[in-house]
Amino acid sequence: MPAVVGVPLMALAVRLPVRVWRALAWPMLLAGIGALLLIFTPLGVVVNGNRNWLDFGGGFRVQPAEGAKLALVVWSASVLARKRPLLHQTGHVLVPVAPVAVLVIGLVLAGQDLGTSLVLMALTAALLYSAGAPLRLFVVSGAAAGLLVFAMVQSNVTRSTRITAWLSCNESDYYNACWQTVHGKWALATGGWWGVGLGASREKWSWLPEAHNDFIFAIIGEELGLVGTLLVLGLFAVLAIGLLRVVIRSEDLFVKVATGGVLTWVIGQAVVNIGAVLGLLPVVGVPLPLVSSGGSALVTTMIALGMVIGFARREPGAAEALAARSGLVSRSLAVLPRRSARAGR
User: Fold this and answer.
1) Other beta carbons within 10 Å of 170
2) How many C-beta atoms lie closer than 10 Å to residue 251's C-beta?
3) CA 184 – CA 39 distance, rounded (Å)
4) Tell me: the pLDDT tens digits for 292-339?
5) Helices 179-191 + 216-249 axis angle, to 10
6) Which residues on neighbouring strands pair with residue 53, listed in sequence order?
7) Residue 27, CB-side half-sphere exposure with 13 Å CA sphere
8) DSSP annotation string for 324-343
9) Cβ neighbours of residue 261 closer than 8 Å, sequence gap 6 or more
10) pLDDT digit string (tens) for 198-234?
């Protein structure tokens, strides 16, 4: 059902010109902050210890933090592009983007959603970096963010238990903190090279919590094996290369900053999710973009990627290259630079 909603919205996002996105920046930001504030009204509900959902009844729930990610990307890109002549001054790079980002992250942290807050922190850093913020700023802000995360972990039993489970699991913790991590690894081990077959997973039947969401990568490994997991990693790598290409080639600062934000958001979240499944990172409860179950995350990610596809389609020469190719595959490959074209430059 979320994909049914997401596909037409993604198609619409592809067709929106840059000037429309810039015009939508402030309305999107105000709507995103307003939705985050609604979490603290009777509409807000607690799920897995986090107050980060709005329940409108009838099973219809939305996670406003997902929409806030897209709003922060579009608004920050719009503000920074408008201030381009002043971005050689650190103060103009930081204000008002940094205070607004702190407000958004603070509202998400108030709902106890540390995982999404980490993604928003990385997203904000990418936005500022794309705008030319000095590296010393990231050293200071990174240290401050590290102290904040440490305090948040120490103040919450569930988070500290997850860190302990990540660092060391023993038999006494198997039925508690280590259950999810251990069963995720068992699912990957059971899959072997080729997997047990699509739909034949055993772990997803009440053994592995959040098998459809945070630990979907483990189920992919169990059913499709190492080949299936490498295919997923390869697809994310291709997506990362495509997004990075738009960042590098674009001369429009709005496009560059917005695409850099989407790149960090989607790929960074994928790294955190997969790293947690593999045991390389602690479990922080973020879904795998475009794969995990979850309507809000899927729809907003599809809109964000549709926006970037629209940016790529409007690059100089892109329309001519697409018109010259008739097949779907050849039209997709038309955006790749040809050797003869590079040699002539």
Assistant:
1) 10
2) 8
3) 31
4) 877 889 999 999 999 999 999 888 767 666 676 666 566 555 555 544
5) 80
6) 45
7) 5
8) T--SHHHHHHTTSPPHHHHH
9) 72, 73, 76, 77, 123, 126, 127, 130
10) 888 988 887 888 788 889 999 999 999 999 999 999 9
| Three-state DSSP state, 55 | strand
Q: Which two tokens stand for residue 132?
A: 């030319």
**Is 80 exposed, middle or buried (CB count within 10 Å of its CB: 0-12, 13-18, 19+)?**
buried
Rounded Cα gap, residues 26 and 48, in angstroms: 32
- Cβ neighbors of 234 (< 8 A, separation 6 or more) are none
Domain ranges for the chain: 2-333
CA torsion angle for 3, 9, 14, 18 (degrees, to 10)? -140
The pTM is what? 0.89
| Token code pair at residue 232 | 């997923």
Token reading at 345? 């430059």
Q: Which segments of the chain are extended strands (E)?
A: 44-47, 50-55, 61-62
Tokens at residue 157, please?
Answer: 């039993």
